[in-house]
């Protein structure tokens, strides 16, 4: 991405997609969660993994608040708190980390994969977690594998925590040779129910070998090589996709599996790559696609013609906007996204209305000014902006809920539409 002065106007075009709307960049104050938040859904997905954040008490409070963890719960994440003794050099921080990890593994012998997650504090004091992970992994092999990644919010947004985590998994993945039978890899954390639905659809098409990254258990992480063809289930996995391609895997460009249209085209990309006939493909998706389209009919009257404004938060904004515009008839006022990967989003950008403003990055004050001038029916934004905007009379949708909630797949299309319809319906009831 190209840097621009903080005062650059929205009209400064700094990049575009060849077949889609122009993309402009803004640089200024941001309002986003940090990458540590990704632990909230990742620890539920990988059932024998544990996420140990090396950070401050603020990091611990953030994750506990985001996850809604009660005091008696024992989740698969924790924080090794950097305190005054560590900062003053009164204790060797590597020895302290080894002690915490050893005690953790003794208490939780079910852990097979341990992630050391960097934070703003650990990065500021230059703690080398990669070297620590390598050292600890050697000590604990073969019972526990230790990996490290950064969830720091200094330069990243909250969904990039998953990207960093999956990149670390790819770096340590077993390599498949060129002679291995072609396989399909679905990349991105999905709810187990959604994963099971996709497995059934792929099996019905005759695609025999399908793996998911991340897998539900550490021992089931897939082998990767030149025979691997992969679909991205999430648009924010830029580094993971790049790491997979470096190992010879082939990306299958497609829409993202959101809404009836998105899921159908996502599945179609796999069907083409594995030689599934058109007749077989259409027969497999006919019934679930019809159910998805029927489920959308319930919510279309509440959303059609309504105007929506996206603040940058998760990188899900372009595919969500495509879904709302094409399948529910909403008008897109502005799409803000923390980062727009033009290559991974090419299919999405090509289907957006050509005059849709897309803003990469954020200058939150300028964006708030544009929101107030446009007066949309719905603002999709982070938690920090939602309450103040509600007080100003705007209906809002928490963007983080779009990541926490299972929304991919045919059977979830109606649930996704409902997430956008609910705040508008609530506003209508309040006005009555």
Structural class: alpha/beta
CATH architecture classification of the largest domain: 3-Layer(aba) Sandwich
Tally of individual domains: 3
Question: Low-confidence segments, ≥5 residues, pLDDT <50?
Answer: 1-18
What is the gyration radius calculated from CA atoms? 22 Å
Strand order of the largest sheet: 1-2-13-12-11-14-15
Within CATH, the superfamily of the largest domain carries the name Nitrogenase molybdenum iron protein domain
Percent of residues in helices comes to 40-55%
Percentage beta strand: 15-25%
Total helices: the number is 18
Specify the CATH class of the largest domain: Alpha Beta
Q: Give a quick account of the main beta sheet: strands, pairing sense, barrel closure.
A: 7 strands, mixed
Strand element count:
15
Based on Cα principal axes, name the global outline. Answer: globular
Distance between the termini: 47 Å
CATH topology of the largest domain: Rossmann fold
Overall pLDDT confidence: 89
Short description:
The protein has helices spanning 39-45, 57-67, 84-87, 93-107, 120-124, 129-140, 160-171, 192-205, 238-246, 259-273, 278-297, 300-303, 317-328, 346-351, 364-374, 383-391, 401-404, 413-431, and strands spanning 13-16, 22-27, 49-55, 77-81, 113-118, 145-150, 183-187, 210-213, 228-232, 250-251, 307-310, 331-337, 358-362, 378-381, 396-398.
Description:
- The protein has 432 residues and is α/β, with parallel strands linked by helices.
- It folds into three domains: 13-31 and 296-431, Rossmann fold (3-Layer(aba) Sandwich); 35-156, Nitrogenase molybdenum iron protein domain (Rossmann fold, 3-Layer(aba) Sandwich), CATH 3.40.50.1980; 183-294, 3-Layer(aba) Sandwich (Rossmann fold).
- Helix content is 44%, strand content 17%.
- It is built from 18 helices and 15 strands.
- The chain has helices at residues 39-45, 57-67, 84-87, 93-107, 120-124, 129-140, 160-171, 192-205, 238-246, 259-273, 278-297, 300-303, 317-328, 346-351, 364-374, 383-391, 401-404, 413-431, and strands at 13-16, 22-27, 49-55, 77-81, 113-118, 145-150, 183-187, 210-213, 228-232, 250-251, 307-310, 331-337, 358-362, 378-381, 396-398.
- The strands form three sheets. A seven-stranded mixed sheet has the order 1-2-13-12-11-14-15, sandwiched between helices. It has a four-stranded parallel sheet with strand order 4-3-5-6, sandwiched between helices. A four-stranded parallel sheet has the order 8-7-9-10, sandwiched between helices.
- α8 links the parallel β7 (183-187) and β8.
- The longest helix has 20 residues, at 278-297.
- The radius of gyration is 22 Å and the shape is globular.
- The N and C termini lie far apart (47 Å).
